[in-house]
Specification:
alpha/beta; seven-stranded parallel barrel; 12% strand; 9 helices
Length: 369
């Protein structure tokens, strides 16, 4: 029996394995070691020679110099940025010093201008008027004492002078007494007959009673047409009051205004009053004295007194006079304020130009107003 191990039984296989190991492992490793040795020997030679030492020293100096230069540049740049920031802050401070007084002056002038223009507007002058739509003597016996209790006055619709003094109707003395207490006469036209002749008759009776017509007419017809409106315009009527139960097909013009009236006891009457207060308008209620429920009527007047800060109860004449006086005062104020308003507007325009110039000089865009 042979004494060789299994690994040496085949010499050719062992030789092949040796060659493979030598080529794939040992030779590359030797080559790497040789290259490393060559590089190390070159660096060693350089370091050992005088020239190499000089070169290495120079390299170190260059590296230190570059680091120092970098630090100096960073410091110089930081100083430059600080100087620029300080200059910008000083520039903005100077800009603000110039802009702020102009801005404050502009705000003050704009506030003054708004106040002047507001005072020249039509004021919210809500008025409330009552027209008793019949000539019932209950106006004198039942309604008038309640109206007087609250310090108010009303109007009495008169469609035919011949009705005065008839049974159940107001007499001349009663009408005269009420007119003396501030009540008025409101001509009431059904749209039938000659308007000029009818109006002339009512005007004569009113004059004999000491009343002056206000140029307002209560229309009691079915529908106010353009024909009716033209007839009323021709006799000098300035406003026609149309109950909400009547239609309107006539166009409203500057020469003839149209005003709606509502029945005093209708649902939502309080809403109409509140709307009138909100709009500063004219609220007109019609009252039929023959059907007057005095307790409810008094409660309505009590409600009006609660709203006295927002609405004034007047006769039609009184309401018209109040509005005329207010408009006259407004026009006088407009004329008085006109020079100052023009002066303020001119100065505001000048300030805006100055402010725009400041923004432009600072390289900025002026904010839009």
């Amino acid at each position: 029996m042979s004494s060789r191990s299994p690994e040496t039984k085949d010499p050719s296989l062992a030789f092949i394995l040796f060659l493979w190991y030598t080529v794939t492992v040992q030779i590359p490793q030797v080559q790497r070691m040789r290259r490393a040795g060559e590089e190390a020997s070159i660096l060693f030679i350089i370091m050992k020679t005088r020239t190499g030492k000089i070169l290495l020293t120079a390299l170190e100096i260059l590296l230190v110099a570059a680091a120092v230069a970098g630090l100096l540049f960073a410091f110089a740049d930081s100083r430059r940025q600080a100087r620029e920031a300080a200059a910008e802050a000083a520039r903005m401070e100077e800009f603000s010093k110039k802009l702020e007084p102009l801005s404050l002056e502009k705000q003050r002038l704009e506030s003054e201008l708004a106040g002047l223009e507001k005072s020249c507007e039509t004021g919210d002058m809500a008025t409330f008027s009552m027209i008793f739509s019949d000539l019932s003597d209950k106006i004198y016996t039942e309604a008038a004492p309640i109206v007087k209790k609250f310090g108010y006055a009303a109007d009495i619709a008169l469609s035919d002078a011949a009705d005065i003094g008839k049974a159940g109707k107001l007499g001349t003395a009663q009408l005269g007494e009420l007119i003396g207490e501030g009540w008025g006469i409101c001509p009431a036209w059904s749209g039938e007959g000659d308007a000029a002749e009818w109006y002339s008759g009512i005007e004569g009776v009113a004059s004999s009673l000491g009343a002056e017509l206000s140029g307002r007419v209560l229309f009691t017809g079915r529908e106010l047409t353009e024909t009716h409106a033209e007839a009323l315009r021709k006799i000098g009527v300035s406003k026609v009051i149309v109950p909400e139960t009547s239609g309107i097909s006539a166009a409203q013009t500057e020469k003839l205004a149209v005003c709606r009236s509502a029945e005093w006891d209708r649902d939502g009457g309080d809403i109409l009053i509140l709307n009138g207060i909100a709009s500063g308008g004219e609220v007109v209620f019609t009252v039929a004295a023959t059907e007057l429920y005095t307790a409810l009527f008094e409660s309505m007047l009590e409600m009006l007194r609660m709203y006295s800060s927002g609405i004034t109860v007047l006769s039609l004449d009184g309401a018209q006079a109040m509005r005329a006086e207010a408009e006259e005062a407004r026009q006088a104020l407009i004329e008085e304020s006109a020079p100052r308003i023009a002066e303020i507007k001119a100065r505001i325009t000048e300030i805006k130009r100055e402010m725009n110039a400041l923004y432009s000089g600072a390289g900025m865009t002026a904010p839009k107003e």
